[in-house]
Amino acid sequence: MTLPDGASDVRRVGGGDINEAFHVVLAGGAEAFVKTRQDAARGEYATEATGLVWLAEAGGLRTPRVLEIHERYLALQWVSPGRLDAAGEEELGRGLAETHGAGAPSFGASGGASDRACGPSSFGSLRLSNEPTADWPTFYAERRLGPLARLARERGVMSPRAAQAVGRVCGRLAELLGAAEPPARLHGDLWSGNVMADTEGRPWLIDPSAYGGHREVDLAMLRLFGAPSERVFAAYEELTPLASGWRERVELYQLLPLLVHALLFGGSYVAAAEGIAARYAR
Predict the structure, then answer these.
(1) Which CATH number is correct for 86-280, 3.90.1200.10, 3.40.50.2300, 3.40.30.10, 1.10.10.10?
(2) Which of 89-98, 104-113, 256-265 has the lowest mean pLDDT?
(3) Cα-Cα end-to-end distance for the chain
(4) Does the pLDDT of residue 170 top 50, yes or no?
């Protein structure tokens, strides 16, 4: 492991599937959360750090302040963990609506100075391109579902028939995804484990894979992996109602994290992804 120079009071804490994580006191006296991995991809922690800043700049929700960036570690403001209360759940919904509404320069990465968050998205050991496309159906097909299905087929995770079903879904996205919306500012990996609460019950966003995309992606993933409460979605819709037909698109957007989990963990995630692909490929 690699830790900041002068770090003291080092204590191991939970930090995800692929990183080691520690509570430390930095040389200057600040408490920090440090995630570290010797085989981290080049620029991985810098991309995560800029994603945190980009989300915080939207003004909707808190993210930990970035303290130090290194090729082998990322040091963030220490947030003492608590439990999300009812007010915090409503704040999460409103804050997500504000974050999404802050927008993005493109679907994916624009490459401009204002678009600092959008290097390749990391999902565990997987990396997905955020090279921009002209519209959302193209991005979702060519930067998300298509590459994941090809990789699943190459690794023998999915059958050729199932991978072909994902391909047919990609060909139908223009009709399946509803009315066009401008790019939203996405967390990109928004399951319940990436929403933490502080000791006052307030929500914080952590571990982003940020990019410009469709806001229903974040909401669908939050529903898939244990949203804190329906209060979250009610508060979101009170501020920013979803477009007509969103319920029919929930599983279509859940196909993305299910393909990721099928590749990383196999098991029941494979069958779940194949079932959804078959439904929308008709």
Answers:
(1) 3.90.1200.10
(2) 104-113
(3) 49
(4) yes
Which pLDDT score, from 0 to 100, does residue 113 have?
A: 45
Task: Kindly list the distances between the CA atom of residue 14 and the CA atoms of 35, 37, 226, in Å, as whole numbers in the listed order.
Answer: 10, 14, 19
What the block records as the tokens of 96 is 């997500």
Which tokens hold the place of 170?
Answer: 């990609």
- Give the pLDDT of residue 122: 87
CATH of segment(s) 8-77: 3.30.200.20
Amino acid at 35: K
φ and ψ at 108, to 5 degrees? Answer: 105, -135
Residues of the chain with CATH 3.30.200.20: 8-77
Q: Which residues are catalytic?
A: 189
Q: What pLDDT, on a 0 to 100 scale, did the predictor assign at position 23?
A: 96
Is 111's pLDDT higher than 60? no
Question: What is the DSSP track for 10-33?
Answer: EEEE---SS-EEEEEE-TTS-EEE
CB 222 within 8 A of CB 232: yes
Q: Where in the chain is the domain with CATH 3.90.1200.10?
A: 86-280
Buried b (16+ CB within 10 A) or exposed e, 223-248: bbeebbeebbbebbeeebebeeebee
The model's pLDDT over 22-79, given as tens digits with 9 standing for 90+, comes to: 999 999 999 999 999 998 888 899 999 999 999 999 999 999 999 999 999 999 999 9
